[in-house]
Amino acid sequence: MAKQKPREKSRVRIAPYDGPVGGWGSLKGVTEIMWREAVPLSDWPSLLKQNKSDGFACVSCSYGRPDEPGLFEICENGAKATAWEITDKRCGPDFFAEHTVAELESWSDLELEEQGRLTEPMRWDADSDKYVPCSWDEAFEGIASELRALEPEETVFYTSGRASLEASYMYQLLARLYGNNNLPDSSNMCHESTSVALPQTIGQAVGTVKIEDFKHTECVMFFGQNVGVNSPRMLHQLEAVRKRDVPILSFNPLFERGLERFTNPASPIKMLTGAETQISTQYHQLKPGGDLATLVGMTKTLFAMDQEAKAEGRERILDTDFIEKHTHGFDEFTAAMDQFLWRDIESASGLTRADIEAAAKVYGQADAVIACYGMGLTQHRSGVLAIQMLSNLLLLCGNIGKPGAGIFPVRGHSNVQGQRTVGITEKPKLAPLDKFAEQFGFEPPREKGRDTVEACQGVRDGSVKAFVSLGGNFIRAIPETEIMERAWRDMKLTVQIITKLNRGAIVHGKTAYLLPCLGRIELDRQKSGIQFVTVEDTTGRYHASYGYSEPASEHLLSEPAIVAGMAKALLPENPKVDWDGWVADYAKVRDAIATSYPEIFHDFNTRIKENPKGFDRPLPAREREWETPTGKANFISPRSLSEDPDLPATRLGVLTLITLRSNDQFNTTVYGLDDRLRGIDGTRMVLLMNEADMEEWELNEGDEIDLHGAAADNVPRVVRGLRVVKYNIPQGACGGYYPECNPLLPLWHHAKGSNVPAAKSIPVRIVKREGESDSLPLIA
Ligand SMILES: Nc1nc2c(c(=O)[nH]1)N[C@H]1C(S)=C(S)[C@@H](COP(=O)(O)OP(=O)(O)OC[C@H]3O[C@@H](n4cnc5c(=O)[nH]c(N)nc54)[C@H](O)[C@@H]3O)O[C@H]1N2
Ligand SMILES: Nc1nc2c(c(=O)[nH]1)N[C@H]1C(S)=C(S)[C@@H](COP(=O)(O)OP(=O)(O)OC[C@H]3O[C@@H](n4cnc5c(=O)[nH]c(N)nc54)[C@H](O)[C@@H]3O)O[C@H]1N2
Ligand SMILES: [Mo]
């Protein structure tokens, strides 16, 4: 029985939220989800184990752990992610016996995942259109026989950024032994712009900041990263930074509550007195994609300030010694900056010259500056360039490679950075293929594999015929939902290694398997005993993660065991790859990782045991060693302020859509329909609009509209039935939730150089709905 209008609560409320991030609202959020997921009371104290050296690495974000973690080294959203995984709800064969897949088509993401943890491997049965239980061996054999019938390049092995170093390493080896480098991961939709931009500028693909740097910094900047929702543990460091009266500058088209105010829920006094910390000392509401122009404007201001200081015989603003000794391309960069006019900077950034100068002054006067950034920079057509421009700004004042300073890409998933480190990459030059060849006695494929966008293109043109997902909900996360869903069903094989039912199970290939796995919080018992796994956080530190809760079902296998099961069924025996031995004892996988990557992982097992707080990867740029072709840190000069070339020639009636995460979701996992911090309760089908634009379009709050894609290719793309909400967002921009708005994002609209879908700048047009609305009234 198809459900009616599954996406709204019976009561929908839109009203501005006055509270801070954290505080009682946050504690209430935690308790609500613990009840909703029916987490037994005995498991509640487990929250205290989160992000402790003897506990588990939070399955939510990738932010690092301080050396002395607080009693509650958790946050509202980390607690939600934990509750989501250790839930008492189960989705077993009885559920699947009751529902055909066609029937589940109309279920929302929330309703699918609300069924709870999957308990047994399942195979899709074409005759009944139902998932039916199968044994693990049947699943592995079935998958292997499909894959054997294909050419290796016709299969894609996708990973979502949560899988451990051990599982990821085994998985990339499986793909390469099978014969391809088709190893895209969620990073391709996320911080790939970072991984492309930073090696060219500072010679490493990851950031340079450690948590201790927050103790020494004199200024923190945020470009397009929503700390209060997506990496809330960082608020503890920001609170301490503000206590020292250090300025924080935020650049964001939306006023995000977490960048404005915070009440520490771990501080009893603050909770009782309601004391809030003001986070940002300056908040610049730029246009979507306006960062590049803003950074150019700040740079011009610094040049002017420096000239003035020089003329007056004061200490220079630019770090001329650093520029001279450590950088390349400064003269060309200076000339490029001279080309840009303030008039154009103001119009491309949406900020006034005075605003930009005010930000530059604070930056220029601080001796050590940290620049944090997230999807607001990476998910644009010019994302790579914007990151390079941020790096330029830091280099000007020597803000890389000294205490309290650095560039800080705040990555998403808890091990997304680590997966790339251990070989999950479609770019052969980033994997030690010669080493693999020697270690495992085979000739690894040398051709470039497919990234996320290229994998999607392959599914569309039929050249990709099988898709194996280690985690994630790929079909919901990618652009162009409708077109991609149609193409997806033509594939020969889809395999989902997941923990909960999601859309990727419903939209499937001709043969389809669901392989349910253990989560990281669960006890992983293997032949040699209980195993732990390891992850790399966004500061480049490796931690062990120990599960503690009983598995959701006795039939679950760990991710390493599933990868090994597929590999053994598919690949010829290889005496140098001991899949069984690896599964029996993950320490042996870590030994293999150490052999492949000795500089980073030498003595891996010893070091992880001896350092309960983790150990660090080498970060050459932190030591001012530049592993670039010039041997220096490079200034990279932008040639334009990025007019997005994908926008249609005639912009009449076109708005730029930013796709957003709510406070009640982890990526495509929707915990609930509320977004407390933005004052939206009970629905996600909204379009946030500027008041002046609403007048222009003659719209009132609560009106229902259809949103159409307005990209230059004129392909019809539409999301129907969004309700207009008046919001403080720049004129010309509008906001909607991800993944609901993904049908509007063209596959080809992605960052140049990194192929990250430009999800923060989608051209759209509004079409008003005539007649009666079938929605519930808004209660303001
Ligand atoms: N609770 C929770 N935590 C998460 C996740 C989650 O979904 N929920 N997801 C995880 C993952 S995989 C990731 S990648 C990270 C994502 O975390 P973030 O990097 O914070 O990503 P978003 O929330 O998509 O958007 C970030 C901010 O960019 C702003 N923005 C949009 N366009 C622009 C622009 O042009 N310029 C600027 N300066 N700002 C802009 C938006 O208003 C928003 O505040 O979080 C991780 N952590
Ligand atoms: N429009 C728009 N699109 C976007 C974005 C955006 O900002 N806007 N953001 C992009 C970004 S940054 C990202 S990272 C992607 C991510 O998007 P997703 O693919 O949604 O990422 P996940 O959170 O990894 O996927 C959730 C699924 O992982 C499975 N899962 C959970 N825990 C585990 C586990 O321990 N093991 C395994 N094997 N499976 C598990 C569950 O079944 C769950 O359904 O979306 C991208 N898409
Ligand atoms: Mo991400």
TrEMBL record:
Alphabetical list of Pfam families matching this protein: Molybdopterin (PF00384)
InterPro entries assigned to the protein according to its UniProt record, in alphabetical order: Asp_de-COase-like_dom_sf (IPR009010), MopB_CT_YdeP (IPR037951), Mopterin_OxRdtase (IPR006656), Mopterin_OxRdtse_a_bac (IPR010046), Prok_molybdopt-oxidoreductase (IPR050123), YdeP_MopB (IPR041953)
UniProtKB keywords: 4Fe-4S, Iron, Iron-sulfur, Metal-binding, Molybdenum, Oxidoreductase
Molybdopterin oxidoreductase domain: residues covered: 117-498
Domain of life: Bacteria
Keyword ATP-binding: no
Cofactor: Mo-bis(molybdopterin guanine dinucleotide); [4Fe-4S] cluster
Family matches, as NCBIfam families: Fdhalpha-like
Family to which this protein belongs: Belongs to the prokaryotic molybdopterin-containing oxidoreductase family.
The protein's name in its UniProt record: FdhF/YdeP family oxidoreductase
Species, as recorded: Methyloligella solikamskensis
